[in-house]
Amino acid sequence: MDALIQLGMVSEQLPSEAQNSATSASEAKDYFVSRDGVKFAGTHLIIDLWDATNLADPEHIDDVLREAAVATGATILHGHFHHFGPNSGVSGVLVLAESHVSIHTWPERDYAALDIFVCGECNPYLAIPVLKKGFQPGRVQLAEHKRGLVG
User: Fold this and answer.
1) Helix (H/G/I), strand (E/B), else coil: 145
2) Residue 99 among the catalytic residues
3) According to UniProt, where does the site described as Cleavage (non-hydrolytic) lie (predicted)?
């Protein structure tokens, strides 16, 4: 609580010009997408990979998802992957400046569930060939959702 009060006091002590320029800079950039007459926050792909390979190797998964994120045009901020043990699944996430990529794997079923949500100029569909190359699925199920749909 004291940190919040101190933080509040610091912002109150800023000259009004500094407060105004900080507000103007944050309000000036709109990261929503306008495409085909529709405005929205970003594209969220839900991807299921069936009959896939390399689903119990957290380093391989990390490498593939990083390559996929870069292919979309995104900026990777942080990644964390948890391995549930030998021959077991992996859950992980890449936090992107433009949102996230996440995965949960079931190697015993040769199945992986992924989310790719990106905003701005990023194209999540550019990740699909990277995922196919990295996991060699026999079947891919894909659903798209436009997040933050304005109209």
Assistant:
1) strand
2) yes
3) 98-99
